[in-house]
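Continuing the batch. This is chain 6 of the set; chains 1 through 5 are on the previous pages. Same settings as before, nothing changed between runs. Recording input and output for traceability.
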Amino acid sequence: MTRISRRGLLKTGAAAGVLAATGMPLMASPKRGGRLRAGLSGANTSDSWDGRTHSDLFMIASAQGTVFDSLTEIAPDGALRGELAESWEATSDAKTWTFNLRKGVKFHNGKDFGADDVLESLALHTAEGAKSAAKPIVSAISEMKKITEHQVQFTLAAANADFPYLMSDYHILMYPAGQIEEAIAKGIGTGMYAVESFEPGVRMVANRVDDHYKGDNAGYFDSVEYIAINDSTARMNALMTGQVDAINRVDFKTEKLLRANPNTRIQEVTGNQHYTFPMLSKTAPFDDVNVRRALKYGVNRQELVDKILLGHGQVGNDTPIGPANQYYAGDMEQLEFDADKAKFYLKQAGLTELTVDLSASNAAFEGAVDAAQLYQASAKKAGININVVQEPADGYWSNVWLKKPWCACYWSGRATEDWMFSTAYEAGVPWNDSQWDHPRFQELLLTARAELDSTKRREQYREMQEILRTDGSVVIPMFANYVQALSNKIAHGDTVGNLWQMDNGRMAERWWMA
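Output for chain 6:
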């Protein structure tokens, strides 16, 4: 991942604004035309154009970079660049940020984009009753001010030199002020594609916008069609029979079939995606740190990498900070399966054995049920009896995740350490799926967020990772590569984004017909 110094982030000038208009490396030779048909997982009948609710690939890819835009964007090489923001600058303490907005941008209904749209779109995330995963990001803004029609200023409650990165969050989409309810109902954004039809949990079709502000440097397809195919076998068959041109989340067990097909190819990208088993740490028995430690030593991580990922990844160490992050503490002592240590910590918890339920579904990640069963087998050697509860895929994220005491989950990771921690490990945030609230960790979170010295910040993030490794309430046994498959009819730039699946979910504007 390309690194931008934290001090360098404080000011980004017009050059970045020019770069932001390019959706591909300059050496690429894309051509315009055709329809991209993608078979994607993660769709639900409750899906909508409300970015606050987006949690899986189907809507992430349908919305950001397709129908809607954000203020900033993570480029394929991991660099930060402007999208609807042309440039930005901050005071030396990283508390006050001024964003200069692009001029001449229009929503699909013809309304001009400006400062009011930014302020109203951000306010959605802190509105009364709003259940937005981006609420922690927007809540950190103590004042939002319109300077001119194309300039806004944010004053933060506390310094955050990563703030421009956070404005690329896929929940933070820009809607037309005064028309947000209609925009959410119909899918009215500033993206390169305007909605033709949308059937939640089934299909989305959108057509290329003429005279778009990104010009001819992105959005090469005439139209895109995203088809909801949650079953991995059905996705593979759809690609092999030519019904779709691209699929996400290839089942590793059937990968060889796709590699053997002369009309398709595998695209494998290493990023920060990790597969997890979060425990609700305020619910017994997971409120006992010794029980959590016993479970950490009860899983054979290498076995999961070998049998679930079939080698497409690496073992995890119970921290969400991955190999693509700047402050990844890859030299920490690795947690390994150790039945004796697991038994020791059970004894410390006053137990001779433990019986717990583990909810799993392949909706969490491909092979999640098998992974839970392998966990069950290894933990049994330590006197831990895991009852694997196979949950239905439909409704898993609304009925199981954040509700059942222990379950399977996956995270794409985030571009910065603070972004990841503040999304899922900051006390009280909506997606803190383990109810994690550790005083020293929370203290370091705030301190590191404002720290401009890279050496000090590395030390702070290392300590945070060590705390999670030792006492945390999420078992993270493996980091998984993104493995997706494309028809040979599809081409793309030399670098494919590794922040989310399918080129950071932006395949509609970055890929083209070969």
